[in-house]
Amino acid sequence: MSEENLDGAPHRAAGTTGDDLVVTGVSKRFGGVPALQNVSVTIEAGKVHAFIGENGAGKSTLGKIIAGVLAPDEGALTLGGRALHMTSPRDGLTHGIVTIAQELAIVPGLTVADNVFLGAEIATGGFVRRRELRRRFRELAHRTGFELRPETPAAYLSTADKQKVEIMRALSRRASIVVMDEPSAALSSHESKALHDIIRSLAASGTAVILISHFLSEVLSLSDTITTLRDGHLISTVDARGATQESLIVGMLGRSLSATFPEKQFPHDDAPVVLEVANLCAPKVDNCTFSLRRGEILGIAGLVGAGRSELARAIFRDAKVSAGSVRLGGDNLSGHNPHRSIHRGLVMIPESRKELGLMMGRSVRENVSLSRLDLVSRLSWVSRLRERRAVASLMERTTVKAASMSLPATMLSGGNQQKLLFARSMMKTPAVLIADEPTRGVDVGSKRAIYDLLVEMAREGMGIIVISSELEEVLGLAHRVLVMRHGRISAELAGQDISEEAVLEAAFTENSAS
Amino acid sequence: MTETLTDHPDVEDLGNAGLSMKSGLRRLFGSWRTAGILIPFLILFVVLSIASSPFLHTTNLINILDQQAAVLCIAAAGTLVLVAGGIDLSVGSTYALAGVVAGEVGQHHSVVWAILAGLLVGLVVGLLNGVIVTVFRISPLITTLAMSYIIYGLALKVTNGNLVLTGSIPGFQTFTNSTFLTVPSAVWMAIGVVIVLAVVLSRTTYGRYVVAAGGNAEAARLAGVRVNAIKIITFVISGGAAALGGIIDAGRLGSILSTSGGPSLSFLVLAGIVVGGTSIAGGEGSGWRTALGVLFIALIGNGFNLLGVDPNWQQIVLGLILLVAVGLDMWARRAKA
Ligand SMILES: Nc1ncnc2c1ncn2[C@@H]1O[C@H](COP(=O)(O)OP(=O)(O)OP(=O)(O)O)[C@@H](O)[C@H]1O
Ligand SMILES: [Mg+2]
User: Fold this and answer.
1) pLDDT interval class at A334 (50, 70, 90)
2) Which of A62, B131, B299, B313 is most buried, with most CB under 10 Å away?
3) Number of cross-chain residue pairs from A and B with Cβ atoms under 8 Å apart
4) In whole angstroms, how far apart are CA B93 and each of B89, B139, B258?
5) Nearest CA to CA, how far is A440 from chain B (Å)?
6) Which of A102, A347, A353, A362 to mutate to test the interface with B (most CBs of B within 10 A)?
7) Do B224 and A343 touch (CB under 8 A)?
8) How far is the centre of ligand 2, averaged over its atoms, from the C-alpha of A100 (Å)?
9) Distance between Cα A411 and ligand 2 center (Å)
10) Best mutation site among B2, B4, B23, B333 for ligand 1, i.e. most ligand atoms within 8 A of its Cβ?
11) CATH number of A271-345+465-514: 3.30.565.10, 3.40.50.300, 3.50.90.10, 3.40.50.150?
């Protein structure tokens, strides 16, 4: 079958560019449920080819098939006219195909540099050549413009930094085809810009880049070709020059979307304060003071690393607070105890669903009900029926798409995993919801559903804090915006003052607003 | 098209997979993990019934249960520890210490005090284990290994290396050996402990939290689960069960030594749990299956005796079975990922 790999003749190895990858009639089912049906695409060398579609449309599945991570049930792949038979990511690598997965794969116990060169260590006789490794790392760092210290243990990295490690890993492999599954989902806008430059330079040097993304503006500005998937079917493959956001949305959803954001519904002028944060100090949080009113949506913007998530975790009493206070509806939250915060009505959706949010191996049902099992149990006895009813209605409300609620979370598409966290936080309507990157990896249609949900919850009287690296999201949703920089609140913007320029200025420039 | 199944809350299982072989089996056994231990257990049972006529005798079967009573209790509790992401290697020594303490206290006080003192020893050991693991963040493997030496030393001190007789303590044998419906009380206690702990793990909020703590501790904590408290309680339960096991055997056998139990008991318990399909990596497991796993190992021993096979083979076979069990678990995890 794979005669091209058996003989000693020089076959097309890693690093060879200039070949087109042709996917013909590929289908894939998971446990009888089709994820892809009869999909054909051609990936041209030196082009950026985007895959777009709703959550669960099959984008990642197609990307994984192309990289050899998954084997198709039907259909064939050819590279430069030769049939490809891949059974593992390693096979993909030998053909010069590299993936940057949606769910990051970083070894926490290794350093940044070790992670970058993982599986392709520079070694002589089994000993890693540290100096050479560091030199190559510096080269890569220079090329990407990423500022990462090679000896930092990967366990301490933020999600965005882990993403950078994955990108550097792919680049170090000198791939001829790179599959990037939502690479910018965790990056801030200026980091995304750096990524875009990398993607462009990769394509210019003859590498084919497959870009899976929910950011249509990114897709339109970067790609040459755009393939749209819906429910596992190929809808269209078009030239990016002729496409518009509207035409892409219609292809993805099968309907058009009136507006990205729902209309803002400001709280009453006399709405009472539900959350008061005064002089809060915690690791990476420096003397933050603000309040939140019933029905208000407060946006927190800033660069990745500015201390936004740390502020959220300090309020949630998950981080050690060194000074200051948090008052929830007049109640002082003290100690170091997320459990108490949740039961007093303060809920947080953490930023990284895989590490901080979900039990990936457990069922959808267990994941959703975990925080408030007390609501579906009596005397510690969990009522399966009540639990299923509660979870089912929450799944509907948050538009989670899953074949069954007993599927483990790993089997859901990335966006649907995110929605599970939303469903969990709604088990009992909280007084205050902190959503850290609430729509990371969520498709446009469902994003709108989540925005509607947030606006609806605010209208019912919840106070909401939205932290987002997507500036557009903060601007589109928030009634008031705090901008953070180096752990401090560097600006508070309200009403007419909320604008992209004002936020960026406060995020980037030193000033003494607080 | 994948439909959202929210309209049919009652259709929980992989409904639309059609009537494939796989989903049919799944419905029959709950999960393949259950089938993985239940089917071999039933096959072994049937084979032994056919191959050896004394096997099916009530006396033989009750005897097996009586001998396994202590192991069943300890393994049922150990399942909780493993599911929560821990491991308890100190149960063998705790078993001995609790047994000898009960025996010694019984020499001077009533049997009630003897039993309570033994149980208290186990609970305290468990509490220490739990606190060291969670508060001081020392790995449970090391903590309980170290603890097992300490406890063994204490048991030696208590007994000065002598045999502790419990036969002379009035009421001690009544606690373990009196029969109800021809079944000794030790077995009834084991059945009770297994049922309670299995139900706790599968049906209560505490059980869910145990699973969550072992599945992803950080996520569980952020979701409001008091992970440290949950883990400490698993160790306390494990210590208490080990003590009960020691007391049961001290009464059943009429005497106990500081060297009883020990590492070989700890390993036997672990083997039973793992053969039952509980994952050593945490986040998954069931008390029912552990009971089957323990009894499966016991049946092999019993079968070897009845059929007159060289007992040395027993250890080798047990080792091979363990490897198969762990291999199946790995395979299942990979299939899921
Ligand atoms: N390992 C798996 N086992 C079972 N079902 C799976 C598995 N992986 C994916 N699926 C299902 O296949 C479908 C397609 O998933 P895929 O991850 O390709 O979606 P996607 O387009 O990448 O979505 P997203 O935008 O949310 O990342 C989904 O319905 C998903 O639930
Ligand atoms: Mg995906």
Assistant:
1) confident
2) A62
3) 137
4) 9, 19, 8
5) 17
6) A362
7) yes
8) 11
9) 11
10) B2
11) 3.40.50.300
Give the amino acid at A371.
S
Q: Which residues of A touch B221 (CB under 8 A)?
A: 318, 338
**CB pair distance less than 8 Å for B208 and A381:** no
Residue span of the structural domain in which B47 resides: 36-304+311-326
For residue A481, the 8-state DSSP code is E
Q: Which residue has the tokens 């959703």?
A: A368
Q: How many helices (H) and strands (E) does chain A have?
A: 17, 24
Which residue in the set B12, B211, B221 is minimally distant from A338, CB to CB? B221
Q: Residue B279 burial (CB < 10 Å; 0-12/13-18/19+)?
A: buried
- For B299, list phi and psi in degrees, rounded to 5: -60, -40
Which two tokens mark A283?
Answer: 């690791």
3-class DSSP assignment, residue A122: coil
Q: Does B300 fall in a domain?
A: yes
Q: Specify the CATH number for the domain of residue B249.
A: 1.10.3470
Residues of chain A with CATH 3.40.50.300: 3-253, 271-345+465-514
| Dist. CA A133–CA B30, nearest whole Å | 51
Helix (H) or strand (E) holding A431: none
> How far is residue B325's CA from residue B335's CA, in Å, rounded to a whole number?
15
Compute the half-sphere exposure of residue B19: CA atoms within 13 Å on the CB side of its CA: 0
| Coil vs helix vs strand at B164 | strand
Q: Record the tokens describing residue A46, joined without a space.
A: 């030196």
A42 pLDDT above the threshold of 90: yes
Say whether pLDDT at A96 is over 70: yes
ipTM higher than threshold 0.85: no
Cα A98 to ligand 2 centroid, rounded to whole Å: 16
Residues 196..255 of A with a Cβ closer than 8 Å to B: which? 231
CB A26 within 8 A of CB A147: no
Fold of A3-253: Rossmann fold (3.40.50)
| Best-predicted range by mean pLDDT (A108-112, A206-210, A440-444, B96-100) | B96-100
B284 versus B247: the higher-pLDDT residue is B247
Residue B14 to residue A231, Cβ atoms within 8 A: no
For residue A219, give both structure tokens. Answer: 């897709």
Helix ranges restricted to H, B181-286: 185-203, 205-215, 217-222, 227-253, 262-275
- 3-state secondary structure (DSSP) of residue B224: coil
Amino acid code (one letter) for A231: D
Q: Can you read off the two tokens belonging to residue B302?
A: 């019993």
Number of domains composing chain B: 1
Alpha helices in A102-223 (DSSP H): 112-116, 130-144, 159-172, 189-204, 216-222
A78 vs A76: CA distance, rounded Å:
7
| Contact yes or no for B206/B237 (Cβ under 8 A) | no
> Any CB–CB contact under 8 A between A356 and chain B?
yes
In whole angstroms, give the CA distance from residue A264 to residue A296.
10
pLDDT at A10: 36
Distance separating alpha carbons of residues B23 and B9, to the nearest angstrom: 18
Give the DSSP H/E element, type plus range, for residue A377.
Answer: strand A377-378
Top pLDDT among A108 and A138 is at: A138
- CB of A439 within 6 A of ligand 1: the answer is no
Examine residue B31 and state whether it is found in any structural domain, yes or no: no
